[in-house]
Design a protein that fits this description.
This protein is an alpha+beta fold. The chain has a single domain (5-217), classed as Sulfite Oxidase, Chain A, domain 2 (Alpha-Beta Complex). It has six helices and eleven strands. The chain has helices at 26-29, 54-57, 87-99, 122-125, 202-209, 213-228; strands at 15-16, 39-44, 50-53, 63-70, 75-86, 107-112, 117-121, 131-136, 139-140, 150-152, 165-171. Strand 2 (39-44) and strand 3 form a beta hairpin. The longest helix is centred in the C-terminal third of the chain and has 16 residues, at 213-228. It binds ligand MTE and molybdenum atom. Residues 23, 71-73, 158-159 line the site of molybdenum atom (MO).
């Protein structure tokens, strides 16, 4: 198939979607989302467990950034405008001084209100383009896209971009941490390297995931329509 102009310069194996659907693992979309206020617990290898709230995040510089979004299943949506705070600032100005890690932290597990979880190396989380975002395209974040707050990590596939973020678990290593579906969870999931999943090369997973995109979009949309009615 000839690439269209829309596909130009997309990362390997991605295709543009003009819409930005609510996406993810269907079972999680059915889970209740108890909290509408920002409340992120910080736990793990630290001296003092803390809770990050909207007022604390508001002490950090607000940044707005435009970025393309890439789901590991193969769809991309271009030029989303996110607004929030840099994870690096949260780390340096709130977590380090207040929670006081007791060891060198290498991995952070991101847990969400809908029971979804994923993890990224700290080194990836403190990149300049990683945000805790509460606004999208000039509007407050909707439930569909991760209210009250979500991680935005544009260099990593969608599944690292935890929505409805509720807890950060600080760890010295990966020991004891296991994602639910190992095949689909690469430790870093960098888009440019096509790290779609584990054990199989990204270019194979491209074809394995693609047929599931439309059924997942439809199933999650139906769940949302139901929740609203
Ligand atoms: N809490 C939570 N975060 C999640 C998911 C999820 O099911 N639950 N799905 C992930 C996946 S696979 C993708 S592609 C993106 C989709 O983000 P969107 O629904 O805003 O399009 O959210 C990611 N973060
Ligand atoms: Mo995804």
């Amino acid at each position: 198939m000839q690439p269209t102009s829309d596909d130009f310069a997309l990362p390997p194996g991605q295709r543009v979607r003009p819409d930005f659907p609510r996406f993810g693992i269907v079972a999680y979309a059915r889970q209740p989302l108890p909290a509408t206020e920002v409340r992120i617990e910080v736990v793990g290898a630290i001296e003092q467990p803390i809770v990050l709230t909207a007022s604390e995040l508001a002490t950090l510089p607000r940044v707005t950034q435009r970025a393309d979004f890439h789901c590991a299943a193969g769809w991309s949506h271009r030029a989303l405008e996110w607004s929030g705070v840099r994870f690096k600032d949260v780390w340096e100005q709130l977590i380090l001084p207040k929670a006081r890690p007791t060891t060198q932290i290498k991995l952070i597990v991101l847990r969400c209100q809908d029971r979804y979880r994923t993890a990224l190396p700290l080194a990836d989380l403190i990149a300049a383009d990683v945000l805790l975002a509460d606004r999208l395209n000039g509007q407050p974040l909707t439930v569909e896209h991760g209210a009250p707050i979500r991680l935005v990590a544009p260099a990593h596939y969608g599944y690292k971009n935890a929505k409805h973020l509720s807890r950060l678990e600080l760890r010295a290593d990966e020991h004891g941490y296991r994602a639910k579906v190992r095949l689909l969870d690469h430790p870093r999931a960098r888009v440019a390297q096509e790290e779609r999943g584990q054990f199989l090369p990204g270019w194979i997973l491209r074809y394995a995931f693609r047929p599931f995109i439309e059924p997942i979009v439809r199933a999650i949309k139906a769940i949302g329509d139901n929740q609203r009615s």
